[in-house]
Amino acid sequence: MLADRKFKAIKIGLMRSKEFGLLRGVAMHGKTFLTTDIPTAATNGRDCWFNPDFMFKQIRNGDKGAAYVMAHEWLHKAGMHLVTYRRLAEQDARVTNMAADFWNNDRILCADPKHILTAMPEDENGKQMGLYDLKYHGWPIKRIFQELKQEQDEGGGAGDGEGGFDEHDWDGAEGLTAEESKQLTEDITQAIRQGIHADAKAGQGGLHDALGLGELVTPKVSWRALLRMFMNSTCRKKEQSTWRRPNRRFLHQDILMPSLQGNSINEIVIGRDTSGSMLYGDRLKIATSEIVGIAKAISINKIHVIDWDGEIENHEVYSSDTLSTAPAIKTATGGGGTDPSCVSTYLKEKGIKPDCVIMLTDGDIYNWGNWTSPLLWAITNDRKITAPSGKTIQID
To answer: Which helix or strand (DSSP H or E) is residue 193 part of?
Structure first.
């Protein structure tokens, strides 16, 4: 009973705090069990289990260590890790566990850097029991997984390192039906949104979302749709008359005239960053394949494909009909630095004046260049980068 009362007191303290208050709805969702049937703590993404002996006897740093464990399990639920990353767990459950723990612990440290409420649990020898590495600050779980997996496959640290302090019940999560998983995702999302809304209503304005929960529930617009919208709205060539939509310029004179609509684009430039970093994780291949598909669907008369790094490496010209089968589109020439200003300078020197320019890059840029045509930056980077000119979309 003493452990039960202590657990509830710490839980309430976290839920009322500015650092972890946005997790209150997540903490209340599902069932919580205090049991010695597990060695430390565990979750299946919906319910949580905590061993009271571990929480209040084995952890050296007392209530702060216990609070840390609670917040850690709640973040697994908030991130919907055991639903979202099942496929990764099928590849390697241990590495997936580690990636999720690195993500959680980074968030907890960001929310409570001075350890006012929480501290990573320590064993009897004073050794920290969790996983943390500043290197993974701000990284998404999948990227952490890929890094750890590569280290493991190469015989490095991930294969030999110790795991976290809790258990991830993948079998229990797998036991949820498709409908239960869908409902769980909806419930957790709603719980986070309610916490954010209550925080804003109370005058906090979401200023205490150091855990980054807002990004977990923000609707994401497909970058492919944004790319298509940009090309449609910016570059459509008006070439056919239609009576479906009367010309508005003459309506005030009670004169009906046809408007113009277009089904093709005259000329665009696709600038592909072929510096070394763009070859990571097939970034260039993925982005290029989407460009090819959209270009073919829209119909473009002249497509300049320009490979660049620190300088112009290759320049080919295609149409929508010839782009998809072009040998050069399947390869990338380059591997040097990253300076897109070479493209804007090159276009000016060659007198190329396209309807729009689409720049595929990782965004690690110092000189963004000077542009005269409508410009879209399609950036592949785990950090959010916004170009100083033109429009920017983030490629997942």
So the answer is: helix 178-201
**Which of these three, 155, 189, 216, is where a domain ends?**
216
- d(CA 373, CA 291) in angstroms, rounded, equals 18
Is residue 45 a contact partner of residue 76, using CB atoms and an 8 Å limit? yes
Q: Determine the structural domain holding residue 181 and report its residue range.
A: 2-216
pTM: 0.61
Q: Where are the alpha helices (DSSP H) in 29-140?
A: 52-53, 62-78, 81-84, 86-111
Burial class (CB in 10 A: 0-12, 13-18, 19+), 125: exposed
Is 67 in the same domain as 192? yes
Residue 352 belongs to a domain with what CATH number? 3.40.50
3-class DSSP state of 174? helix
- Whether residue 284 sits in one domain with residue 152: no
Farthest-apart Cα atoms in the chain, separation: 88
Answer for the pair 376, 395: CB distance below 8 angstroms, yes or no: no
Handedness of CA 161, 167, 168, 169 (dihedral sign): positive
Q: Is 347 exposed, middle or buried (0-12, 13-18, 19+ CB in 10 A)?
A: buried
CB 42 within 8 A of CB 82: no
Instruction: Tell me how far apart the alpha carbons of residues 300 and 293 are, in angstroms, rounded to a whole number.
Output: 12
SS3 content of the chain, % helix, strand, coil (to 5): 50, 15, 35
Q: Are residues 181 and 262 in the same domain?
A: no
- Tens digit of pLDDT per residue, the chain (396 long)? 688 999 999 999 999 998 999 999 999 999 999 999 999 999 999 999 999 999 999 999 999 999 999 999 999 999 999 998 988 899 999 999 999 999 999 999 999 999 999 999 999 888 999 999 999 998 889 889 988 998 888 876 654 445 689 999 999 988 888 888 889 988 998 888 887 776 655 544 444 678 888 877 766 667 777 777 887 777 654 445 555 555 555 455 555 555 545 456 789 999 988 876 666 556 677 767 767 777 776 778 899 999 988 899 999 998 888 887 777 676 766 666 788 999 999 999 999 999 899 998 888 888 899 999 999 998 887 777 889 989 998 876
Asked whether residue 179 falls in the same domain as residue 251, the answer is no
CB atoms within 10 A of CB 244: 7
